[in-house]
Design brief:
single chain, mainly alpha, 2 domains, 8 helices, 47% helix
């Protein structure tokens, strides 16, 4: 009984200390002040394990389809370059002020398309990565994944050609086979240029 009573006492003390810390406002929540290393590690572990738990059942379509890649180029150019850059674009005002720093997809290789799909569709809490699934169907999201996979080896001229729609990309509504959705997913990278526990795709 003494052990249980001591354990309960310690739990009460810890909860009380945590509540006092939160209410004190001591922690700097500003995006221009990096997380403490331990905070960054905890958030990164939470993010990685959460995505891995949720993306296990996603089926990846043919991401080498030229029409899918071209469709993804148009959406990427409209929505993503301010954070993730593009061939010939080395920085942006938005990206400069973001923390964690989003991956630069002209230099970051996506190793897990299912992870990338899940992150693009569902976003990441407490980051600048939105849930594009609110406004884009699975076909368009897979198109963005297909395009991002090509970016590290893409020339400026090819990027401009694709993003301007000068390659046959198929109509948004002209796809017979439904691309697999479902389930959690995302993108592992061979290179990260974020400065904190940023999400894998953002």
């Amino acid at each position: 009984m003494r052990f249980i009573a001591a354990l309960v006492l310690w739990l009460v003390i810890l909860v009380g200390a945590g509540a006092a810390f939160v209410w004190s406002g001591i922690y700097n929540i500003g995006a221009d002040s990096p997380h403490w290393p331990v905070t960054a590690q905890i958030l990164a572990a939470l993010r990685n394990h959460s995505i891995a738990q949720h993306d296990a059942n996603i089926n990846v379509p043919d991401l080498d389809n030229p029409q899918l890649i071209a469709l993804g180029a148009k959406h990427y150019a409209e929505m993503c370059t301010g954070c993730h850059l593009a061939p010939g674009k080395t920085d942006s005002e938005m990206r400069t002020g973001l923390y964690p720093k989003p991956p630069n997809f002209t230099r970051t290789h996506i190793g897990n398309p299912a992870m990338a799909f899940w992150v693009i569709k569902h976003g990441i809490k407490m980051s600048a990565m939105p849930a594009w699934g609110k406004t884009h169907d699975d076909h368009k999201i897979w198109a963005m994944v297909a395009f991002v996979r090509q970016l590290p080896n893409m020339s400026i001229a090819r990027y401009k050609q694709l993003s301007a729609g000068n390659a046959h990309d198929g109509d948004d509504d002209d796809h017979d086979a439904a691309t697999p959705d479902s389930g959690p997913a995302a993108a592992s990278q061979t290179e990260h240029d974020d400065d904190g526990p940023g999400d894998p795709v953002r």
